[in-house]
Every structure is written in C-alpha cells, then in structure tokens.
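Hi,

I'm pasting everything inline rather than attaching a file, because the server keeps stripping attachments. The sequence lines come first, and each chain or strand is labelled.
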Amino acid sequence: MIDTLKDIVGDSHVLTGTDMGKYSHDFTRSYAWTPLAVVRPANTDEVAAIVRLANDSKTAIVPVSGNTGLAGGARADGAIMLSLERMNAIREIRPDARIAIVEAGVVLSTLREAAEEHGLIFPLTFGAQGSAMIGGNLSTNAGGSNVLRYGNTRDLVLGVEAVLPTGEVVDLMSELHKDNSGYNLKHLLIGAEGTLGIITAAVLKLVPKPGAYATAMVAVPALDQALGLLNRLQQATGGAVEAFEYMPRSYIEQHLKTIDGAREPFEAPHEVNILVELGATAPRDTQPGPDGRAPIAAYFEDILAEFFEDGAILDAVVAQNEAQRREMWERREAAAEVTLSRQPIQNNDVAVPLDQVATFLDRANIMLGRVDPGSTAMVVSHLGDGNVHYAVWPKSQDPERMDAIMEGVEDIVLDLGGSFSAEHGIGTSKLPSMARRKNKPALAAMRAIKTALDPNNIMNPGKVLPPEN
Amino acid sequence: MIDTLKDIVGDSHVLTGTDMGKYSHDFTRSYAWTPLAVVRPANTDEVAAIVRLANDSKTAIVPVSGNTGLAGGARADGAIMLSLERMNAIREIRPDARIAIVEAGVVLSTLREAAEEHGLIFPLTFGAQGSAMIGGNLSTNAGGSNVLRYGNTRDLVLGVEAVLPTGEVVDLMSELHKDNSGYNLKHLLIGAEGTLGIITAAVLKLVPKPGAYATAMVAVPALDQALGLLNRLQQATGGAVEAFEYMPRSYIEQHLKTIDGAREPFEAPHEVNILVELGATAPRDTQPGPDGRAPIAAYFEDILAEFFEDGAILDAVVAQNEAQRREMWERREAAAEVTLSRQPIQNNDVAVPLDQVATFLDRANIMLGRVDPGSTAMVVSHLGDGNVHYAVWPKSQDPERMDAIMEGVEDIVLDLGGSFSAEHGIGTSKLPSMARRKNKPALAAMRAIKTALDPNNIMNPGKVLPPEN
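And the predicted assembly:
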C-alpha cells in the first residue's frame, strides 16, 4: 500500500510515523488520531489514483485541507489521510465574469488577497481564514460573519470538480449562473464533509469590494427588537448590511477580563450589544466628502439618530476610522479566545428562525438553570442569520450532566424549528445529535445516497451519518 | 387501483377518461398523453398514500402542478398523474422573518400578490406566473428575468417537504439561513423535475419590494461590450440592477411585425438593444423629488449620460412613467409570441459563461449558415445570467437537419463551457442532449442516486435521465 502510494505521488509526499505529527490532531487538539499514512497528491489524476487504490483495497480515506474544522470531521485513525495542500493554484481570475477558478488547497485568505487586486472580494470570512482552505470550506459549507449579505459557501460556488469514492472524476466546473441539466451534484458534494467524494477544484463567485464601510456598536432595549432594527436598517440602506453580530453583556464582561487592552463598547453598560457593519460600492456612497468621510458613514449616523429619537436604540458608537472599526471587530473575533478561556466547555452551534433567537435564549437559560444550576452560558451570535453559538461553562463536571445540557439545548432548538448544527457541521462530534434529531426519512435517504455513491464505505467513513442501530 | 385511489382522495378527485382532458397535454400542445388516472390529493398524507400505492404496485406516477413546463416533464402516458392543485394554501407569511410557508399548488402570481400586501416580494417572475405553481417552480428550479439580482428558484428556498418514491415524507421545512446537518436533500429535490420525489410544501424567502424602479432601453455599440456596461452599472448603483435583457435588431423587427401597436425602441435602429431595470428600496432612492420622480430615475439618467459621453452606449431611453416601463417590458415578454410566430421551430435554451455570450452567438450564426443556409435565428437573452434563448426557424424542414442544428449549438455551447439546458430543464425533450453531453461520471452518479431513492423507478420515470444504453 505505502509503496503503491509512493508510486503515485513520489516518495517525499507519502508520510508515515512521526512525520505525520501535524496531521494527527485537530487545531484545538480536541481530537487526535494516527493515520495509516499521509499522502499529498499534486493534481486531480493523482487524487483519483489514490482513491481507486483505496476503493480497490477497501481502505478508509480521509481528505484534509486546512484542518481547521471544529467537529472532528478529519479524524483519520488507520486511514489514508489525503492532504490537498499541494493543489494550491489559483488557476484563473476573470474580473469581467467575476469568477475565480481555484484548486482545493488554496488558503482562503490567499484567494481573498488575489481577488482584492482586481477590486473584488471572495466574501467568505471567518477567524481561521489564514489557514482554512477552499476544499474544506466547500466540504463543510463554511459560514462566518458575512453570510447575511453574501450567503453561505454554497451560495458562492458556481462549479466544482470532485473525485467520487469510485475514483471517477466528476467535472462540474461550470461557470454558469443558470444550468438545469440533471440533479444538482454540486450542492450534494458541498457540505457532505468529504463523505461522498473529494472536492479538488472549484469555480467561485467574486463580488465588488465595498469602497467604504460604516461600522457601529449599537445598543438595543431588548433582543426581541433586534430583528425589527435589522429590517429597518436593510430598508433604509437598500440592503447594505454586511454583518449584524450580537454580544450580550456577559460576553462583553468576559471579553474585558480575558483580553489585554479590551475596552467597554459604550460609556454605560448595556445588555444587548450589536455590531453592525454596512458596506457600499456605489461612488456616491463611498467617495469622501469635504470632511474626508464616506457619505455612507454620515448617512448611517443620520439613520441611527432617527432610531435613537424613536427609542429603537439606546446608544450607538460609529467607528470614526479604521482603528476604531478594527477594535469593534476584534471584540467580536475574540469569541473563540473568550469562550475557551474556561474549561471544560459544552459547545453548541445552533440556528433558529430569525424571529426566534430571543425566545431560544430565554428558554435555554431557564433550562440551564434547571439542569445545571450555577453554570454560565457564554453567548455570541450571527444574529442576522439566526445562528447562535451557545457555549456553556458547566458548574458540574459530570459528563452525563454535560450531555443533558446538550440535549436540553437540542430540545428547545428543535421545538423552535431550528437546527442542532448551524455552520460547524456534524463530523463525529454531532453524530449523536444526528441520530436523535434528524428527520428519520431524511436520514434514511442520506444513507441510501451514501451507499449508492460509496458502496465500500471508504470515503471519510464514520462521519456525518451515525451508525444505523 | 382506481377504487383504491378513490378511497384515498374521494370519488370526485379521481378523474378518468374524457375528464382528464386538460391534464393530457402541455400548454403549448407540443406533447399529448393519456394518463391512467388523474388524482387530486388534498394534503401530504394523501400524497404519501398515493405514492405508497404506486410503489407497491410498481405503477408510474407523474406529479404536475401548473403544467407550464416546456420540456415535456409532465408527460404521463399510462401513469397516475398526481395534481397538486388542491394543495394551494399559503399557510403563513411572517414579514419580520421574511418568509412565506406555502403548499405546492399555490399559483406563483397569487403568492406574489400576497407578499406585496406586506411590502415584500417573492422575486421569481416569468411569463407563465399566472398559472405556474410553486411545486413546479421548485421541481424545475425555474429561472426568469430577475435571476441576476435574486438568484434562481433554489436560491429563494429555505425549506421543503417532499414525499419520496417510497411514500415516506421528508420534513425539511427549515426556516433557517444556516443549517449544516447532513447532505443537502433540499437542493437535490429542487431541479430533479419530480423524479426523486414530490415536493408538497416549501418555506420561501421574501425580500423587500423595491419602492421605485428605473427602467431604460439602452443601445450598445457591440454585444461584447455589454458585460462591461453591466459591471459598470452594478458598480455605479451598488448592485441595483434587477434585469439586463438583450434583444438584437432581428428580434425588434420581428416584434414590430408580430405584435399590434409595437413601436421602435429608439428613433434610429440599433443592433444591440438592452432592457435595463434598476430597483431601489432605500427611501433616499425612492421618495419622489420636486419633479415627482424617484431619485433613482434621475440618478440613472446621470449615469447613462456619463456612459454616452465616453462612448459606452449609443443611445438610451429612460421610461418616464409606468406606461412607458410597461411598454419596454411587453416588448421583452412577447418573446414566446414573437418566437412562435413561425413554425416549425428548433428551440435552444442554453447558458454560457457571462463573458462568452457574444462569442457563442458569433459562432452559432456561422454554424447555422453552414448547416442550414437561409434559416433564421431568433434570439433573446437574459444577458446578465449568460442565458440565451436561441430559437431557429429552419429553412429546411428535414428533421435530420433540425437535429444537426441542435447538435451544432450544443458543440459550441460545450466548447465554451456552457450548458445545453439553462432554465427549461431536461424533461423528455433534452434526453438526447443529456446522453450526448453530460459528464459521464456525473450522469452515472445521478443514476445511482435515482436507483437508491426510487428502486422501482415509479417516480416520473423516463424523465431527466436518458436510458443507459
């Protein structure tokens, strides 16, 4: 097996033993594993040859790119770990057609920088973008902070190329905005976490880079008024809201304790704090006026003043320069550091309908007080997407009580029509939730598709789909 | 069988014999068929019971809603034809969450009217919207004229409920903007043309209704400059372009000949005529100024004047009132009437990358002159989507020459990275194209999925996937 792998990719690109170090755990070190070997193909043909070898010998194969997942989706005990890192070419950027054609191993931030040279952006953005790669972004349908305006990863993808579990290459490298020619395999592969095939390349949409941003911290009287504020902002700005991020007072306080140099967002403390960012591309919004500021910033201040007048907001601070904007974003982007500042942690990445976030939090906090009195919820939310990161610092260290918290969160989420996994995916960490909570006929259909496309169950086995019994 | 169907839905909702008249042909009468029976269930449970009956008895079943498809996807010879027309409830519109929850038999224009009462729109729009229904819209992933701004049907759907070929009901009625919990069955069912299951209900996205439109006919020196114009317009307006529709001179002339009262769009004739529409929701763009016009209209005129100055456009006429706007749209929406004004017709609904439309048309016209000298191409295009309706009035009446035209168009489309089916779908009419042109491993994967979910091949059999040999 090892020799055959070396024949395919060359001796230096098959790693075994201690050379596999960095490929043997996830980046938070929540999971560790020992692959059979790590193999680093240079192109799609080599990926296909490796997959055929795995399929013929019924050997498990686990694709990995940036390895920044949070759900254990790259665990690879005894498996061939196929790293896409050498397939890192940005093959083409066509500014007129607003597309980028890239290989799976391109680092997200590298693509973002390349697009910016053309006045365009690839709008996917989140904390790990300096190491996360396109292959993993697509395979997990990554989310992040600008989904509100630009959609999830799948909404940014025109075409993909993938190696199926049989080793066949599906070429769906469409650059098209309309293509109704059979079942949508692209959307099936995106978000399948590498269990239906290995995405090797993609055609991605680019959008104009906003020429100006207007960013503010806004305090709202109550969380259940926030959606109304968002809708009014969208109405007033013609849909220019790029981000709408909720931080409760408890988060602000923990941020002040955890991060050196952290400052209060407002003079007086508020319970409901929202980071709002507008982005504008039209010259009349972006070209600096006599005061050196973009019109959108002045315009944003007028809107906020009006909202303040009628009581829709309690307070607002608009960033006056890039440094102030960065400080606002750093407060939000410190979420992982703030949340992980205490251990153990019971983490929930959930979504509810847009108008149910406040209800969810009220009910979850009541549940928490009942199941584990004295525990603390550390919440941060992509509020414009209905996505809540509900992390719990348990009072109890009892694993059964931790599970009870998870189940309690799931009960409420499902009752509100939500999802137990919003953007982090299933991997192995959410397999119990899938087994308990996913609509049974849907789960059966997923299993049927998995078996049809991967009859030997070699492709990232044991992820996404829980065992049948 | 008939008796059992009557037990499920009641006697009056099982039609046979001459009662099946209007269910026995498509609306253009290009196809006719004789169903075994037409059955009209009242709810999802009845749909599931009918499907189980069909599956147990291995009887073909063909779902139909508005029956406005153009590709023969509802042909139902000897099959149970399951009409969703009675499942026509708009269950709920939640304006704050910007969603509508609807059953499959809701007529598209009915939903559009209901949304407008809340100041919102469901942005899917096309000629047949007065009879097309949501079930068919989703099953065919319908396109239309506003895809440029709002996406295809699949981009407007948050959740679906469907009855699988086994009769099981998958409840994916998510209202969520982020939901990574397993394979995306929603996107698999959308666009599958009823071959993988029957969509019975959906959660749809609504968006703010533009408070003002600015609409113009614009003449451009050459088609290959149109994409640059679109990008400049998007840049100048912050992405406010709702529609960008191309009509060549030959279309304008045929329109003048075909439609009573039709008028020239410009004083002098131009070769490249584009209907451009901007939509605005922000009050500063929509609230009428002293002259009674919305600022966006004045703003649009300034932009067009600038483009005229630097030679990017040759001429422009901005609609000064709703009547003038309607006249511009009626010219475009007469496409079916104009195109079908001569028979026979060889129709191609294709898509190419945004920057390849001019190349496609140049090459297609050369091909046409070679394959069938004296024939005429009647072209109209959703240019902002790369979607070209390339209809041919053949000189020859020879079916083989008609096929040669279709193959010639496909050759060019595929060479340019395009698709032989942009928005009309496969049905039965494009089965030869699927067999010839679709990526073989992709087609094999589709067949594997079909077999996995519909082992008895009862669900709209013979559509989308060509026979294997």
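The longest strand of chain B covers residues 212-220.

If the labels don't parse on your end, tell me and I'll reformat.
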